[in-house]
Amino acid sequence: MPGSAADNDRTIREFLAAWERRDTARIVDAFTEDGVYHSIPLAPIVGKEAIAAFVAGFEGRPPGRLEVRHQVAADAVVMNERLDHITLNGVRVSLPISGVFEMEAGRIKAWREYFDLGPVRAAYEQGRSR
After folding, report:
1. What's the whole-number average pLDDT of the chain?
2. Where are the beta strands (DSSP E) in the chain?
3. How many separate domains does the chain show?
């Protein structure tokens, strides 16, 4: 049945794999219409349309590897600890992230990510100095 802990766990793993492929349609489809993505150091992105615009901004960027170290699912919540290997401004970065996903009827209602913005800023500074 959609919405079980096992289904939600699988949905998030497939969602992260879609990010690795830069599969915008699959990523956006994973959200509810009123879904929220909140990268905690930044302002939240609210609604499927705004999320689609945000995700489309990654289409031309090199794919990354989102390495899930631990993931747990209970009822309508999935939490993971990841190491995202990404390229920012031409600089390779490995960014430790903790993610929390609130699920509703098999879709992401809210996605919050917690990470240190320092490595991101450093990558942009290093890329500018090249």
Report:
1. 92
2. 31-39, 45-46, 65-74, 77-88, 91-104, 107-114
3. 1
